[in-house]
């Protein structure tokens, strides 16, 4: 790192990259569930839409 002044920018960058990777991992997880059966995927999506404020 050239300087230690933009520490908040660095932490925000790391946080957003971690969130991006987490969404990709969740998408792969839901795709794997979709290959098993569609009803549990629908239930999980309904659960997330109910309790996560998307």
UniProtKB/TrEMBL annotation:
<dbReference type="GO" id="GO:0015078">
    <property type="term" value="F:proton transmembrane transporter activity"/>
</dbReference>
<dbReference type="GO" id="GO:0015986">
    <property type="term" value="P:proton motive force-driven ATP synthesis"/>
</dbReference>
<keyword id="KW-0813">Transport</keyword>
<comment type="subunit">
    <text>F-type ATPases have 2 components, CF(1) - the catalytic core - and CF(0) - the membrane proton channel.</text>
</comment>
<keyword id="KW-0812">Transmembrane</keyword>
<dbReference type="GO" id="GO:0031966">
    <property type="term" value="C:mitochondrial membrane"/>
</dbReference>
<feature type="transmembrane region" description="Helical">
    <location>
        <begin position="12"/>
        <end position="31"/>
    </location>
</feature>
<keyword id="KW-0496">Mitochondrion</keyword>
<keyword id="KW-0472">Membrane</keyword>
<dbReference type="Pfam" id="PF00895">
    <property type="entry name" value="ATP-synt_8"/>
</dbReference>
<keyword id="KW-1133">Transmembrane helix</keyword>
<dbReference type="GO" id="GO:0045259">
    <property type="term" value="C:proton-transporting ATP synthase complex"/>
</dbReference>
<dbReference type="InterPro" id="IPR001421">
    <property type="entry name" value="ATP8_metazoa"/>
</dbReference>
<keyword id="KW-0375">Hydrogen ion transport</keyword>
<keyword id="KW-0406">Ion transport</keyword>
<comment type="similarity">
    <text>Belongs to the ATPase protein 8 family.</text>
</comment>
<keyword id="KW-0138">CF(0)</keyword>
<protein>
    <recommendedName>
        <fullName>ATP synthase complex subunit 8</fullName>
    </recommendedName>
</protein>
